[in-house]
Amino acid sequence: MEIAVVDYKGGNVQSVLFALERLGAHPILTADPEVLRRADKVLFPGEGEASSAMQALREAGLDRVLPTLTQPFLGICLGMQLLGEHSEENDTPMLGLLPFRVQRFVPDSAHKVPHMGWNNLQALQGPLFAGLTEADHVYFVHSYCAPVGAYTTAQSAHPAPFSAAVQHGNFHGVQFHTEKSGAVGTRILANFLAL
Amino acid sequence: MVKKRLIPCLDVRDGRTVKGIQFEGLRDAGDPVALAARYAREGADELVFLDITATNQRRQPLTELVREVARVLDIPFTVGGGIGTVADVEALLLSGADKVSINSAALARPEFITDLARRFGSQCIVVAVDARLVDSQWQVMTRAGTQATGREAVAWCREAANLGAGELLLTSMSHDGTKSGFALELTRAVSEAVPVPVIASGGAGQPADFTAVFQAGGADAALAASIFHFNETALPALKQYLHAAGIPVRL
């Protein structure tokens, strides 16, 4: 099985590569449209700031390539947010594959921003979450989030509910870091590779 | 609800884990790769790796060791020690670190925090603050705790968060390695002063110290070294203890 990880200098991809290797995969880090089209699975990690990530995608021509991919595709963290229409972070138009608009969390005395740490998942739907329950925790680090909508396949809350995972067709996204979420994250990654 | 985090810290010198008291009198605590894997298995919520001699000897952090640890680790991994340039941060992130912790360089050039936050995102920039109680004032120390800066700790924490730090790692040098409990008032003051998460460090000795730092101290995470390294308190037992005490933890 060929597994491609999208290379657009979008933050720390090494953790994702190591996690895939721990599952016995041999991921290819690439920005080559042909390699991406040919891969059986595509992972799209991301960290950092939305507008610079979109600019890096445009410079690599990936803003046109990614929406045409047809195999199972997994956006992680900022990689999930970029699938949406728009981010409040520097007023950034994004890929528009899913109909959500990303908003900033509002801190209060009990809820710090970034939302950083282990939180549990709720309202789990679909094959990525096979074998998991609402008692399971995953690791989040983010200051912006997608609201809950018809596309939501898992929720978390800080304090209001937000989309912990989304899906539209072959495009999946998770707001948390599968590669840093211990055995639970490993299971979700394995479930994705099995799609 | 986001859970309170327990973070073992590996202070590393010359490829070995070491631990001292108030930053001195170091003793060997084992192989960092083996310790990291063990802590992840036992339920650590994150791991921090500090190359404690890097700043004073002006040595690059050990990126190869970082890579070895990252390869086995399926929980978040923060690396600090001797980070002074954007290139240092890039090298560590490329080696598999998830976050970096900066200290002396941020004090010398506060704008460095902003540069890193713009380039890599606040989520991976931890500002470490070493504070020492002098004449009932918390003073910020630099260069591995060897030099006073003249800055007051709460004010510096607030400034670091404003400049783009995504998290603060607050160490009380006056408590470090003493096992007499965390600096609760300092932790509470910082936690209330900043919108970002605060990791309390220095002084963990027994399970009740953690309950206190999460409740009275208002910490989001607690970091400890010797009690974990020398098997004085095992992580699974500590988590059960905290759960029973009503502290939200990941079991």
Automatic annotation (TrEMBL), chain A:
Q: Residue span of the signal peptide, if any?
A: none
Q: Where is the Glutamine amidotransferase domain?
A: 5-193
CDD domains for this protein? GATase1_IGP_Synthase
Active site feature: 77, 177, 179
Q: Where in the cell is it found?
A: Cytoplasm
Per its UniProt record, what Pfam families does this chain match?
Answer: GATase (PF00117)
* Reaction catalysed by this enzyme: L-glutamine + H2O = L-glutamate + NH4(+); 5-[(5-phospho-1-deoxy-D-ribulos-1-ylimino)methylamino]-1-(5-phospho-beta-D-ribosyl)imidazole-4-carboxamide + L-glutamine = D-erythro-1-(imidazol-4-yl)glycerol 3-phosphate + 5-amino-1-(5-phospho-beta-D-ribosyl)imidazole-4-carboxamide + L-glutamate + H(+)
Q: Pathway membership of this protein? A: Amino-acid biosynthesis; L-histidine biosynthesis; L-histidine from 5-phospho-alpha-D-ribose 1-diphosphate: step 5/9
The EC number(s) this enzyme carries: 4.3.2.10, 3.5.1.2
Alphabetic keyword roster: Amino-acid biosynthesis, Cytoplasm, Glutamine amidotransferase, Histidine biosynthesis, Hydrolase, Lyase
Q: Which Gene3D superfamilies match?
A: 3.40.50.880
InterPro entries tied to this protein = Class_I_gatase-like, GATASE, Imidazole-glycPsynth_HisH
Q: Which PANTHER family match?
A: IMIDAZOLE GLYCEROL PHOSPHATE SYNTHASE SUBUNIT HISH (PTHR42701)
Q: What does this protein do?
A: IGPS catalyzes the conversion of PRFAR and glutamine to IGP, AICAR and glutamate. The HisH subunit catalyzes the hydrolysis of glutamine to glutamate and ammonia as part of the synthesis of IGP and AICAR. The resulting ammonia molecule is channeled to the active site of HisF.
Its assembly, as annotated, is: Heterodimer of HisH and HisF.
Matching HAMAP family, A to Z?
HisH (MF_00278)
UniProt name for this protein = Imidazole glycerol phosphate synthase subunit HisH
Underlying gene: hisH
UniProtKB/TrEMBL annotation, chain B:
Q: Which SUPFAM superfamilies match?
A: Ribulose-phoshate binding barrel
Output the Pfam families linked to this UniProt entry. Answer: His_biosynth
Question: What does this protein's UniProt record list under function?
Answer: IGPS catalyzes the conversion of PRFAR and glutamine to IGP, AICAR and glutamate. The HisF subunit catalyzes the cyclization activity that produces IGP and AICAR from PRFAR using the ammonia provided by the HisH subunit.
- Residues annotated as catalytic: 11, 130
Q: HAMAP family of this UniProt entry?
A: HisF
State the name under which the record lists this protein: Imidazole glycerol phosphate synthase subunit HisF
Check the record and name the Gene3D superfamilies matching this protein. Aldolase class I (3.20.20.70)
Record family assignment:
Belongs to the HisA/HisF family.
Chain's gene name:
hisF
Q: How does it assemble?
A: Heterodimer of HisH and HisF.
Pathway in which the depicted protein is active = Amino-acid biosynthesis; L-histidine biosynthesis; L-histidine from 5-phospho-alpha-D-ribose 1-diphosphate: step 5/9
Q: What is its EC number?
A: 4.3.2.10
Chemical reaction(s) catalysed: 5-[(5-phospho-1-deoxy-D-ribulos-1-ylimino)methylamino]-1-(5-phospho-beta-D-ribosyl)imidazole-4-carboxamide + L-glutamine = D-erythro-1-(imidazol-4-yl)glycerol 3-phosphate + 5-amino-1-(5-phospho-beta-D-ribosyl)imidazole-4-carboxamide + L-glutamate + H(+)
Which principal EC class is assigned to this enzyme?
lyase
**Localization annotation:** Cytoplasm
Keyword set includes Acetylation: no
| Organism of derivation | Hymenobacter antarcticus
| Keywords, comma-separated and alphabetical | Amino-acid biosynthesis, Cytoplasm, Histidine biosynthesis, Lyase
